[in-house]
């Protein structure tokens, strides 16, 4: 019996990463949009994610939270989509998937909060300065179409999403390596279809304070 696949998200959230991933795997799924501060904190949803945050998925009885973990799970749960390299070739795949979930997200968040780290704090936090993180990522992308080998993978969904959003909102500087990489990913039919659905849902689920 096929297990129902449900995405819990908000159109103004990291859930867009998972929405794109779901379109890439091509399996049937259902979307439940949640409101910040309302249905996202409701008791029913807190049984899915006690943090009261999105995205999360339920696949049958399996619940997964955290966008990077969801992407990795979906790639394994639907191997026919070819979104993860063979196990013996997953070094770069795991490296960049969790590089973006760890150092990249942390460094962007610290900069957005106006935190200027000392050398000791850089060592303690483990993420390094944002400029260093972006240098490393740019070097990895230079001359490459995909991050984890010669094929598109879940790592490209996750890393590409962060680069696309970051450049759009100014939290990541526009570098030629990032723009070249993102421009190709943004044209993928699965990404475009997910964005059409997300944009259609935005008026019904505005950000808090944006209702007026």
Task: Give short descriptive properties of this protein.
Glutaredoxin, Glutathione S-transferase Yfyf (Class Pi), Chain A, domain 2, 2 domains, 9 helices, globular
Account of the protein in words:
This protein is an alpha+beta fold. It folds into 2 domains: 5-82 and 192-204, Glutaredoxin (3-Layer(aba) Sandwich), CATH 3.40.30.10; 87-188, Glutathione S-transferase Yfyf (Class Pi), Chain A, domain 2, CATH 1.20.1050. It has helices at 15-25, 43-46, 67-77, 91-112, 119-125, 130-141, 154-169, 176-186, 189-201, and strands at 5-9, 30-33, 56-59, 62-65. The chain has a 4-stranded mixed β-sheet, covered by helices on one side. A hairpin with a 2-residue loop joins strand 3 and strand 4. Helix 7 (154-169) crosses helix 8 (176-186). The radius of gyration is 17 Å and the shape is globular. The chain starts with a strand and ends in an 11-residue tail after the last helix.
Helix content: 40-55%
Regions with little confidence, pLDDT below 50 for 5+ residues: none
Indicate the radius of gyration in whole angstroms. 17 Å
What is the architecture of the largest domain at the second tier of CATH? Up-down Bundle
How many helical elements? Answer: 9
Quote the distance from N terminus to C terminus. 45 Å
Q: Tell me about the biggest sheet?
A: 4 strands, mixed
Strand order of the largest sheet: 2-1-3-4
The run of helices and strands is: EHEHEEHHHHHHH
The total of beta strands comes to 4
